[in-house]
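Below: protein 1.
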Amino acid sequence: MAARPAVGRRAIEVLLESELPAAGGRRLVLVDAVFEGGEQDSEFTLRIDGESRRVRITGQDSPLGISDAWRRHLTDGNGVDLGDGKNSGHHGDSVLVVTSGVPVDQLGWDVRAHAVRRRPLTVNRADIVKQLFGATDLDTRMVGESWLLDALLEAEPVDGWPHSGAVLTRDRALQALIAARLKLGDIQANTLDLDADTLFAWTRGPAGPALFAALPSAEQSGLGTWLGKTVGPAAPTLLALAADGRGRDALPLGVLASAALTSSSAEAAGFALGTLFGSALSTFDALRPFSEAATGVVTRWIAQAEGTGTQRREARDRVLAVLERADHLAADSRLAELIGTDRLLPSGYRARLQSLTTVLHGRAQRAEAALRDLTDHCLAALNAESTDRAHTAVRLVRWLNAPRPQVTSVSQTVREHLASTAWVDLAVGVLAEGDTSRDAALSDSYHRLIKAVRKRRDVLDEEFARALALWTETASQQAPGDSLLIEDVLGEAAAPLARDGGRPLILILDGMSADVAVHLAAGLDRRVWTEVVPKPGAGREAARQAAVSMIPSVTRISRASLLCGKATEGGQSVERTGFETFWKKRRREAQLFHKGGFEGLPGHRLSPDFVRALASDDVVGVVLNTIDDALADGREAARGRWRIDDIAKLPDLLNAARDYGRPVLLVSDHGHVLDRTPRDHRPLKADGRGGDRWRTGAAQTGEVELTGPRVLTSGGRVTAPWREDLRYTARKAGYHGGVSLAEVVIPVIALVPSEGPVPSGWTLLPTERTQPDWWLGSVPVAARATTPDEPLTAPSAQPVPGMFLLPGQGTLGERTVQSDAYEAQREFVRLAPPERAVAAVIDALVNAGGKLSPGAVAAAAQAATGKSQRNPERFATVLERLLNVDGYAVLRLVEAGRTVQLDKALLQQQFLGDTP
C-alpha cells in the first residue's frame, strides 16, 4: 500500500478555498493525506468568500473514527447539518477536515452524504502551486520535487505569490522561494540577480544564515544545489556553513582559505583550516573555488572603499569587519604564524610594515623592496596614512643614501633648499606626527630615522650658517652675490608679473617656511592654477625662485624690507607706505591689506573694499598671519603639515584671484623651526637676548655671529643659532629669528589661472620638476623643462621647417609625425601644433613611462619650439584629437585631467603599422 502524502496547513487552506465555495454548504472535508500539523487536532480560522470560517483538522484511521469525529463536530456547538446545505446552529459555518486513508468503499453513506464531493479528496500539490502562482502549467521538473512544492506552499507570502505567466518555471519558483525564505532578492522580480557578491553580503546580515539554518534538511539541500549551479561552486560550502550556524564567518573563512592555500606552509595551514571549517567542508577540492570567490568579493569591496562614492565609508567598515574577523579566527586556530604576510589580512599589512622598519637604516634598495611589498598589499590604500608615511620614510632613506649636499655658496644652497632639502624637512614633519598604528617598533624606527636625517641636516645648516656669516658682511642690493634678496622679491618676481597691464595679487604668508610652501603648492588644483617661473638662461633648468631673509629673520625687519623693496624695519604703517611707494615708482597704484582689512563682515567671504580692489587695475597685497600666529599658540604642535584650507581665507583669496584673472605670488617674510625637543628641554642661558632665536654677544656652540649691512638691529651685529633645538625664550610650538635654512630661505611661488595666458618672460613649471628626484624615486628625465635655447638635435645647415634630419630613423615621436597616417589625421585637426612639438611630447611621454602632467607635456612642446602653451589642459585635448585615430585612445587625460597618458603600443600600431 502506497504511503499517503503529507500535507501542511497551507495545502489544506488552498483546498478549502477551492472546494467550499461550490460545496453547497457541506462542511465535512475528507482528505486522503497525512496532516503535518504535529498534533492530533488543529484549529484555525480561514476567510472564504469574504467570511471567516472556523476550521478543525483531525486525523482518523477508521470509518468509525471518522463517523464519531463528525458527530462530535455537530454536537460541540457547531450546529446540526441537515445534509442539504442548511444548518440549525449559530456556529454552523465551521468546517471539519478529516485526514484519513480509509477507502471510499468502506465509508458509510451517512458520512459520505455530508462530505464535500461525497468522497475523500486528494491533494495535488503541483496543482495547488500552479493556482498560487496564477499559472496554467508547471515546469515538469517540479512535479517530482516534493520538497520544493511543500516549501512553496509553506512559504507563501501574506500577499500571495506573484503571478508569473502561463508557465511557472523552476528557476522562477526557486527565485521566489529564496526571496521569501532567505530574504535574498525580490519576490516580485522576474529576472535573476544573484551572484557571489550578493550571497556573501547576505551572510553578513543579521538574520540571513539563521534563516537558512532553520529550513528542513531537504530544502537546504535543494536550495544549495540550485545556488551552486546558479551562483557558482562557492555556494554549497557557504550554505553548509550557514546550516552549521557559522554563516556569518563564511567570508572571513574564505579569506583565510586563500591565505592558507598560498602559504609557504600550505599543508600545515590546510590542516588548521580543516578544523575551522569542520563538517561544512565536504572536500578540500571545494576549498579553492570557495576561497577565490570570497577573495574576489573582498577585493571588489576594497575597490568600493577606495572610491569616491557615497558608500565609501560603509564599504570600508564592511571590509575591515570581515578581515579583522579573519585575523581573529586565524589567531584562535594558531593559523596566524603560518599565513605570515598575506596580501589581504590586516595582520599581513602590519607584518609588511614591520618588515619595512628593519631596513630603514641601511641601503635604499632594501627599503625600496620592502616598500613595494607594502604597497602591493590590498589594504595599502585603505591604510593611506600609514602607507604614505612609510613611503615618506623610504624617501628619506633615499636622501640619506644620496651624496651629501655641499655648500658652495649662499645662493646655490638657498635654491637647493627650496628644490630639495625643504622636502626633507617636510618628510621629517610627516614622520614626526607618528603612525596611526601606534606600533612601538615602528615608532622607534621612525624616531631613529629622524635622528639620522637631523644629524645630516645639522651639518648642512652649520655649513650654510658659516657661509651666510661671510656673505652677510658685504651683501646688499648693490652686491647680492648672485642671490635673490628679500628686498628684491617685488622687483624680481612681482614687477615682471605686473608688466603689460598685469594685476598680480601678492600673498605674504608670514612665517611660511620652504617646506610649508612646497606642500601648499602641491595641494593646488592644477586644473585651476598653473605654476610659472622666469625663463631660465641657456643651459639652465626652469626652477622656483628662493630669496634670503634679512638678519635676524624676524617679521619687523624681513616683512618690512619685502614690502618696501629695500632694507628697512617697521610695522604696518611703514609696510603700507613702502608698498605703495614701490609701485608708484613703477607708475602703478597699489593697495596693501593687513589682518582685519580683507576679511568680510557676517555674510561676506571677503570685505567689499578688498573685492573692489581686486576688480580695479591696482596691484594688491595681502598679509596672512595664520602660520606665524600658530607658532605661539601651539597649532603646529599637533600637525606640522599645513594645507590650503588650514590658512584663514587663503582658499577665498585664491578663488577671488582666479575669478578676476589675477596672477598670484605666494611669498613669505621668513620661515620657522618647530620645537620637537623633549618637554624638559630648557632655553639656552646667554646674555643679550633679543628674541626667540637671536641675541647679542659672543657665539657659543650651535651659533654664529653675523654683521653687515643686512643686519638691521643691535648696531648691525647679532648672534643667532643654526641648530633648531636652541632658543632663548619660553617654550612655544615654533620659533624664528635664527639662521637655519628653514628660517632664512624665502620661497617665491608664482601662479597664473590655467585659463589665462603665461606672462611674457615666464615659462610653465611642470609638477614633476617641483619635486626632487629622491622624492619621486626615479629621475623623470622627460619632465624636465628646459629653455628653448637648448636644441634637442644638432642644428642643420639647411633646416627644413617641420622636418627632421633623418626621416624615419629618429625617435618614436619623429617617426610618428612623419607617417602617412599622421599626415592624414592632421588634416582633420584645426590649428594642429607643429610636428616638432608633437614629436617632443611623444618622446617625453615615452621616456617618462607613459604618464606626465599636462604642464610637463606643454613644457616639452615649448622646449622643442620655443612657443609657450598658454593652457596645458587645452593643449592636451588638441593632442587627443590629433593622435586618437577612429576614437582609439592613443593619448588621453586621466585622473580627472591631472595626468596625460600615452598608450605606446597603440600609437605604434595606429601610425607605424607595428603589431604589439
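Below: protein 2.
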Amino acid sequence: MIKIKSKSIVSIVIFLGIVLTLSIMGYKILSNGIYSQSMSFGKIQVQGFYLRLNNKFILHIDTLNLTALQSTDTTSQEDDEDDAPMSADEILGWVKRFLLVLSYFEKLDIEQIVFADNLPRSVHYDGKEYFINFPKLIARFAIEENDKATELHITQLDILPFGLQMQGRLFYRGARKAIEADVSISPKESTDDKEQPTLYVRAVTDFSKIALEASSSHLYDLDALKPFILKLKNQTLNDWLFKKVHYDVLKLHSLRFKSTLDKHFFEKLQKTLELDLAIESPKIYLAENLKPIEATRVILYIRNESLRFLLKEPFFTDINLEGSEVAINNIFTQPLGVKVSVLSQNAHINDALSNLLQVFGVNLPLRSADSALQVKLDIDIQNEKDQTRVWLNGGISAAHTTFKIGNQNLETEQLQLIFAQDKTKAYMQILSTKIDYAKSIQGTLNLLWNMQNDKLQGNFIIDKFVLTSQSFSEKVNVPKIPKGSDELTKRIIKAIYEESQKGFSEAILKIDKNKMKKINIVGDMGKQKVITLPDFGLIIRIGEESIFELSDIAKIYAYSPILQYFGISQGTLKVQSKDFDTIYLNGNVHNLTYPLYDKNGKILSALSLEGRINEHGIFIGTNERKFALIKEGNVVKIILNGYDLHIDEVFSSQIPVLKQINQENESGEKLSPKEREEREAFIRAKRRYERENKLSPHITYLEARNIDFHLGGYVIPADNASFSLRDDMIRADVVYGNGVANVDMAYSRADVRLSNFSDKFLNRVWQSDIFDGGLFNFKGVYDEGTLKGEISMQNTTYKNLVIVQNILALIDTVPALLTFRKPGLGANGYEIKKGKVDFVLNDQYLVLDNINLIGSSIDVEGGGLVNLKNRELDVVLKASTLKTLADIVDKIPLVGYVILGDDGKFSTGIVMKGTLDDPKSEVSVFKDILTSPFEMVGRILKPVDNLLNGLVEAIGADVGGRAEGFDMLNSPALEKDNELSSLPKEQANLPSANSKNEDVNDENVVNEPNLPQQE
C-alpha cells in the first residue's frame, strides 16, 4: 500500500518536474525569443514571425496572409447565409475571448495583413493603446477594465470613405450586457468654418436593440450628414435638404431614435426618429427659377415620419408670411407628400408670387398695387404613380384692394378668392366681389372654375358700365379747381372739362343696368383657356397672349356710343396683348356710309384696320396706309390718302360725328366785336394755362393727300389738305400745285386767303377751259352768312365764257365798235394783264362791287348784281381803248357810240341783262355810264343796300372800335403771297399764308387753328 502511494508521488513529482523543466526551457526559449522567417498554420501564412516572452508576450509579424482563408470564409458565408445571426451573448463572448487573449500580450505588431485586395493593413498594440490601420478605417484606442465595466477610450477613429473622424468612449456594462457610446464625429479635414462641424452622439445597445441621441455644433452645411441621408434613397428628401433649403448656419439640437439590430432596423428607426434643428437665415426654394421664401430662422423638426419647417419672421419678396410653414409627410416611404402653408396679412400679387402660383397651375394675369391681401393657402404636393399632383386649398381675401392688369387699375371690395381641391373636387371661386374699374365699370363678380372639367361659369351684376377709350390709353387727367382760384381759372378748368366730354370721349361700351342687369360669363379653362361673353359674342382666349375676338360688332352696337358716334355698325374685331401695357388690334368694318369715295367714284364702305393702344395713345390704320387714326392724349389726328370728299354729303350725313359738325356750324355763335375780343383773350389765357400745367390740349387734325372736294357739282382738286379744330376754331390749309389756300374760322366768321392758283385749278373747278394761263389770288371774310372778298388776277385770258362770247357778238353786230376788235379781244378770248374784282356773295345775290380789268388792249370797269335765285343779270361795264388820230378819221361812224375821253382813251358803255345762261348785251352812251360808271352801279345795287350796309357794320364796325382802324380786305396779312410747291410725302402739315400768331403757337402743336385775324 505504502509502496503504491510512493509510486504515485514519484510519478507526480516526475510530471511536475518535466512540466517545470519544459516550462523553464520554454520560458528560456521564449525569453530569448522565437523567430521564423516563414511559417504557416493551415491556410494562414506568416512571414517574419517573432515571439518573445517578457512579463507578457511580445509578438511581431511582418506579414499575415489571410487570402486563402478569406476565400474559404466567403464560401462558408454563402453556405451559412440563411443561418440565424449571432446573439448578443455570443457577440459579447467573442469580445471577452478577444480581450482575454489580448491581455496576455505586452506588445503586438502585425505590420501587414494581406487580403485578396492586397491593400495595406496593420495592427499594433503597445500595452496601453491599440492602433489599427485599415484601408477604410484608422483607429487608436485604449481599454480599461474594472469591476463594473470595460471602458474603451477612442483616441482616433477615422472613417475614411466618409471623411469623418470619431473620438470618445465606449462602455461595456457586464451586468446589463450592454454597450454605451459617447462619441463625437467631425470631418477629418479642417474646414474654413468659424467652428469645426461636429456631431455629438450618445447611444446604448445590447446588440439586440439600440437607442441613439445626437446633437451638433454650429454647422455651415449638411455635408456631414449627407452620406447617411443618401442611404435612405429618397430623392425628394435629398432635394429638399440639399437643394431647396439654403442657409447661413444651422445647429442640430436633438436627433433621437430607437430600433432593433435586425432586418427591421430602418423600419423602426423611421417610426421613432425625432429631429430638432435650428437654421439661421434660411432660404427655401419651392421651385427652380423662383425667388425663395426667406426667414430669420427656421425650426426644422421630425415627428411621426413628418418633416416640418417652422418659420420665424418669414417673407417672400416683400410679403410678410408670419405663421407660414412647410411640412413633408411620409419622408421615409412613398408616396412622399409636401404641404406648404402660406399665411400673410399684408400680401400683394407681384411677379414673383404670380410665378410661384403658376408652378402650381394657377395663372393670374393681374397684379396688386397695394399690400392689402389676407392670404391663407395650403399647397399639397403628392407623388402618385410617378406623377406629381398639386392641390391648392384656402383663400385670398381683402376688404379693399387695387389690382393692376398691365397698366390698368382694378379696384375691388370684399374680395373673396377661394381655392378647394381634393380627390373628389377641384375648383376656384370668386364670391360676391365688388369690382370698380376706372370709376367706369362697377358691379359684383361671381365666378366658379371647376378644375376637374375645366369649365368656367359666372356673372357680373352691373351697377355701372361706361367704358371709355381713355381707360386704355395715356391717362389724361382733367384738372380740379384749386381752392382760392380766381374766376378766370375756374372758367378755364370748366372749359377744359367740357371739352373732355366731347368727340373721342364717347364711351366704348355703355350699358343701362335697368335694361341689362348682369353679364353672363362661361368658359373652358382647359389647354386653350377660352372665356365667352355670349351677350356680346365676345370670346377671350388666355395664353401667353390674351386675345379678345368680337365676331359681330352688331351685337355690341346698341351698347357702344363710340361705334354709334362713328357710324360703325357691322364688322369684326380682334384685340390681343401679352401684358396689357400694349394692346394690338385688327378688324374689318362694313356698311360704312361716310362721304368718302375712291378715285373710281366708289364709296368707301369697308375698311380693314390694324393698330395698337398703349400708354402713349391709340394708333389705328389700314394696311395700304390710305387711312390712319392717331390719338395721343387729347390730340386726335386723322390721315387720308387718295380719297375724295363729297362736302354736300357731309352736310346731309346722319352719322353723329358729321351731324354734330353740321349742328355746330348751323348754330354758330354770333358775337359782337367786344364779345369776340373777350373770347379771344380767354382762349389765349386757356392755352397759356394748358402749356404751364402741361395739359394735353383738345385738338383734332385731318390731313389728306391727293384729295378732291366735291361741292355743288364742282370738283375742287387738292394735292394736300389739312384741317385742325381747337377751341371751337377751325384752320384749313390746302395746296394745289403752287397754289395755297388758308381758312381760319371761328364764331361763324372765316378769314379766307388763296394765293398763286393757276388756270388749271380754276378750269378743273369749272370743268371747262375758261382761262388760259395766269395766276389768281383771293382774300375775303365770311360773316353773317355773307362772303365779301377780292379776286385778283394777272396774265390770263378769258375763253369760252358766255358773257365774253356775248360781248364779242355785240361788237360784231355794231360796226362802230369794230375799233375794239384788237388782238387782246377776239376769237381767242379777252387778254388781261392784271385785274381785280370786289364782290359780296350770299345765298341770294352776287354783288359785283367793283370790276377793274386792265387788258392788253381793252380795259374794263364796272359792276352789277346777279340774282342767284333766278340767275338774272344787271351789270354795267365801261370798255376803253387807246386810238390814234388816223384811226379816228377813218372811223367817223363812231360818233354816238364811242366817246374820246380826256385821257386819250376811246370808251363805250355796255349794259348786260338777261340771265347767266342767256345774257343780253347792248351799247349805251349815257354820260353817267361813260364818265362815272360806278354811280350807275350804285343805282343798280340800290335793292341790296341793306345787305351791304349790314355787312359793313358787321365787318367794319367790328374793327372800328379798336385803337386803330383795320380793314380785313386790306390787311397786310392778306396781301402776303406764298409760293409753295407741294407738301413732303411724309408730312401733311400745310403752310399758312399767314403764319404769324404769337399768342397761340404751342411748341408741341403744329399748325393749329389761328385766332381770327384782327388787330
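The first strand starts at residue 34 and ends at 41.
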